[in-house]
Amino acid sequence: MAEEIILLDYWASMFGMRTRIALEEKGVKYEYREEDLSNKSPLLLEMNPIHKKIPVLIHKGKPICESIIQVQYIDELWPDTNPILPSDPYQRAQARFWADYIDKKTYVPCKALWSETGEKQEAAKMEFTEVLKTLESELGDKKFFGGNEFGLVDIAFIGFYSWFRTYEEVANLTIVAKFPKLISWAQRCLKRESVAKALPDSDKVLKSVSDHRKIVLGID
Amino acid sequence: MAEKEEDVKLLGFWASPFTRRVEMALKLKGVPYEYLEQDIVNKSPLLLQINPVYKKVPVLVHKGNILSESHVILEYIDQIWKNNPILPQDPYEKAMALFWAKFVDEQVGPVAFMSVAKAEKGVEVAIKEAQELFMFLEKEVTGKDFFGGKTIGFLDLVAGSMIPFCLARGWEGMGIDMIPEEKFPELNRWIKNLKEIEIVRECIPPREEQIEHMKKVVERIKSA
Questions:
Q1: pTM (2 d.p.)
Q2: What residues have CB less than 8 Å from B125, skipping those under 6 apart?
Q3: What is the pLDDT of residues A142-171, one digit of tens each?
Q4: Which of B53, B68, B99 is facing A69, going by the closest CB pair?
Q5: Could you give the ipTM of this predicted complex?
Q6: Which residues are in the GST N-terminal domain (chain A) (predicted)?
Q7: Which residues of B fall within a CB distance of 8 Å from A64?
Q8: CA atoms in the 13 A half-sphere facing the CB of A99
């Protein structure tokens, strides 16, 4: 039943997108609830008291926080449809390693790319460029990060693609021209219905962030 | 076919809680392994070659498979050697164990040690903020022998290597009583339970050396 699963999320969150993609991949019905991050709902604060962040997956009343943990959870509950993690322990470990790498290395610089200026933004640009280089090298000539099948690492990173235009415009960062393999990979991912449904329009993200920078942060 | 020591190698550092927890897991499962102590200041060509992304320990090598990041290593060990399971079978319980383990390493560690050492807003404020985080763990272990229930599990290995035998040595060196028994009776009971377990005792760094080591870490943090 749809009420069994509730997802507290924010439309532009690349982390929320992961959980949305996983649920779609499994064909699971759920209730999507948009959170106003400047005015968080009592449910969000109750279900994620430690971080007070989205996405929060609520299954039969019990919360699961952290998007990669949510994706793993969803994969375990519906193992037979479009498996997300490999069954081989070593392949699985590789997938978890790279998903974790993406989390560790993108959170801080990606925020700074759109919320900072000057030196802080420049440092973030360098950091994120290094991450893109590493990921493109890891992807190589494979169809997806795990090989021929769409999986965890693809889900972990594809949401960032909807932010590339924002980073290019707001931070003056070159991505599309510099990382053709990643762009081709993203296009392949977008052919999947789950991804096409989950990712917002890049221009919509850019407009929202630009407005936020101007109005809330006071940056021109 | 019996497992040989050469099948499993662990590159580690004696004072690293991330390394200690992997050793605990291997011993818990009775897996023979070869331990290779690493100089983490002058890193060996081997370390740089097998962990090019982070250049850190621990790294586990198993029949040619190279694994790094302690949580990933623990999950791998649990899947290869099925005796004495570390992670819960139930998907929700497993998700909770993974969540709390991430909380310990990414939140509690930095706030309860680095922030306290730096004390940018003063030591008292830093301690108060850290204790707020420990309250969550206090709740989580209430009424249980271990975070894993009757026996030690994933979160016990992560929190156990990090809190009583690493962070606590640091607090001792700083003269701080971070988790006093009156405020944190359950956590203190959990620590007592941990100390009763032979494989935990076998894997923890020597107390005095660890206190000295953590004092040096504090100096590095302060001068950074």
A1: 0.96
A2: B119
A3: 999 999 999 999 999 999 999 999 999 999
A4: B99
A5: 0.95
A6: 3-82
A7: 92, 95-96, 99
A8: 27
